[in-house]
């Protein structure tokens, strides 16, 4: 058998999860718990690595530690953390 060199990774972006769960853009309304719940459903449904969007870690340094552990326990292969206090103003959220 020939193993493909193609590597696939999925991204569980805050925008897509917020749109799917809340019907709203990613403007900071999706909670840590909702991201963990949805992430667990996604990681259990696929056989490729999934990278999770952890925004700014959902609070202070203790929250970031909790967020990283929660994302690992949910099955994420990687985490994107923003190094800022406030959520970014991007074209995705209309600002």
- The percent range for strand residues is 5-15%
Strands of the widest sheet, in order across it, are: 1-2-3
Q: Distance N terminus to C terminus?
A: 50 Å
What is the tally of helical segments? Answer: 3
Number of domains: 1
| Range of helix content | 25-40%
Keywords:
95 residues, 3 helices, 3 strands
Report on the architecture of this protein.
There is one protein chain. This protein is of the alpha/beta class. Helices cover 38% and strands 11% of the residues. The chain contains 3 helices and 3 strands. A 3-stranded parallel sheet has the order 1-2-3. It is globular.
Helices and strands in order:
Elements lengths: L9 E3 L1 H9 L9 H14 L4 E4 L7 H13 L4 E3 L15
Helix pairs in contact: 2-3
At a glance:
This protein is α/β, with parallel strands linked by helices and 95 residues long. It has helices at 14-22, 32-45, 61-73; strands at residues 10-12, 50-53, 78-80.
């Amino acid at each position: 058998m020939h193993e493909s060199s193609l590597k696939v990774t999925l991204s569980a972006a805050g925008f897509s999860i917020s749109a799917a769960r809340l019907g709203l853009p990613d403007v900071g309304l999706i909670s840590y718990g909702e991201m963990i719940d949805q992430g667990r459903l996604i990681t259990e449904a696929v056989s490729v690595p999934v990278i999770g969007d952890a925004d700014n870690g959902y609070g202070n340094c203790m929250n970031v530690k909790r967020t990283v552990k929660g994302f690992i326990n949910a099955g994420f292969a990687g985490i994107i953390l923003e190094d800022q206090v406030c959520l970014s103003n991007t074209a995705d959220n209309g600002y």
